[in-house]
Amino acid sequence: MKKRSIFLMAATATLYFNNAYAQETPQDTIKTSSIDQIVITGNSGPKKKIESSTAISTFTAKEIQKQNPISAAALLQRVPGFAVETSGGEVGNNLFARGIPSAGAYEFVQVQEDGLPVFEDGALQFANADNFFRVDNSVSRLEALRGGSGSIYATNSPGGLINFITKEGSNDFKGTAKLETSTYGLMRTDVNVGGALVQDKLFFNVGGFYRTDNGIRKTGFRANNGGQIRMNLKYVFDKGYAKVYYKKLDDRNTFFLPIPLTQNGNDLKEFSGFDANYGTYSYRTISQLNIPQAGGGFFSRNLEDGIHPKVDVLGAEFKYDLGNNFSVLNKTRYTNINMNYTGIFPAGGPATAGQFANANGITGNNYQYSLVSSGAIVNPAYVQELGFWAIDKQMNNFVNDLQLNYKFDKGNVTAGFYKSNWKSHQNWNWSNILATASDKPELLNLVDTSLTPNSTGYSKTYNGVTDMSFLLRDSQVQGSLNDLYANLDYNITDNLSINAGLRYSRDFYKGYSVNTTTANLNNSGLTTDGTHSFNTTTADDNMSVLGNKYNYWSYDIDKLSYTLATNYKINKENAVYARFSHGFRSPNEEAYYNYFTTPNPDQPLKPVLTNQVELGYKYYSRTFDIAVIPFYSTLKNLSFTDVFSNGTSENTFANTKNYGVELEGYARLFNNMLELTFNGTIQNPKYSGLEEGSLLEGNVVRRMPKVYFNISPAVNITKQWRTYVSYNYYGKRFQDQLNVQTLPSFSEFGAGTSYQLGKLRFAVDGTNIFNTIGITEGDPRAGSPTGDGTIMARPIMGAAVRASITLDF
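The line above is the sequence of TonB-dependent receptor; the predicted structure tokens follow.
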């Protein structure tokens, strides 16, 4: 690994010196000064960043280009207050806002495109919001809001809003084209063009990408393959504008899950036979599944399809000046998603050959393993049971946001009605398979040598499958949201302003689940190998069969969210603000399923309630920016709903409190030769206010670091040549709420360089250049952790380098 890291660093350095003597042109643009920036997210209208009483981070298209994030989650790591787990790959990652714990995904924030949700609920099972969004050159900027007015301008977003704003055309025809490759077989093309069809009236923009690569972790197949296209058409008239747009996403991404590691306190090492930086169980030799079903027919699945969403989005936006300082804005969007989700989820950790055989009813040494591929008898040191999880989801969302705005001398008032109808119908088919505990696993068969091949229970597998379709699920959730909101901005003086907002939510949820029974194939007439019946194997003993009994349920929300803030602009460069906000999060999909399929639930089903207080100091100048934002938050009725490897679900409730401070800064020094970007969070999230005697009281909230930050210095060596180093620190956490399993802190380094030659930009970006083994999560699907020894955890990706050429025209 050390040799590989040195090679990657050398490759990056080589480009530095090759470009040192090229001709001079204007330098790679530095960060846009925050003193001039206008923000719209979480505000009633466009507002200068220094005048907004919100904690908001902004990234222009140029800044995103310089960071060249490998995924949307990687970009969001640059936002203070957001603890982001990026180890899942390009998609399927997790974001925790201000210490709010969850089972994962984007449960307490809403991810938006142009002010409307990518999908109404960003934390549906296996449907993380980033599954349906990709960052490409059609993104104009990102505005990331924490806390504050998030609950006023969106549903289920007390943690904040993440708003990706897309490009529109202008009178000048312009565009960008980018070609990118990498050390892991990446070929990617991004194109975006925009201009005027009729000067000053009719504008267009079209952009998108196509990408294929083998993945940083070695899967043996195309780990990522697909792309997206966005297009919009905008007509401007005297009193407003009308815009229509369309997006198509069709992309396949491998989802990476825990692998075995060896832990001794804070020391992490590779498990024998497993490359921690590049290895994965998601490998081509176990990628195909084809098994008979108890209800008839066969179920086939291909792991190479990975997470495969097909997304179609059609939307429109209309603004009109009604006169007398009144204006109306209406945004509407329809989203349709069909997603096939296939992943390898470890069922516990590795076991010795004897341990696994004995646990499956074979006594002593009366066991024999063989390779499914060749039939050769083998004696593996360790074996691994793996969940082969297949989920299909059909989702749609129709949303309309109608706003009426009135401006007066001292401010403005916005009132609106938000309507959203959404539906998610899912089908699960889960099996377990048996493989060698290595990063290029081989499927294994296991038999009991004390029995004959004709004996009942002789084999514990069926072509490597230990549990055939042990879990089927057919369920549906629908939401009908009816929200009224209002927001007031009032300038008491030129420098002192107040903001107040409220949102009344009258939301209705309903759904159903289908009951299941168990069956086997013993009397089906099928054979395991053309000779022996299914009596000879245990693999089919607990197959799941969907019944004809439907469990229908409904649940209503009747809640008021509100916020109050004040902002004092000390001068044109300094400002302070204070904000209180109260919001909520509706129960998530698994919480509904658990509650309405449990005969006697332990806890009532309730929304999660949040209260937040934040103070902020902002200083923005031409050469230096800083934001310091202390915050305090409490949560009630927080539910944990991880689905375990055996198909059961966690059903734990807790209250939490957290206090901390977010830091964000940027400096331009020595006549812009040196740039320094910094963001960080210090916090203390704990379980609190629980029943007397609770084992959780005072424990650190699971998966939440107390300290995490990113610092990135850059040097503009010449007007054209820029180089940077990034340092990302992620503090110690606990995998579980009992604080048994420690997830050690880790540091990750990146480095890169770019050179501007006229309208061409050449860049090289390296990530995790020292091949750090840093784990972002343990195995939340394994139940209670055990501490040191062999653990299951999900590490960040190994070292990789990408090189790109971009043409602006």
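Note on the example: Residues 485 and 503 are 4 Å apart (CA to CA). The longest strand covers residues 382-408.
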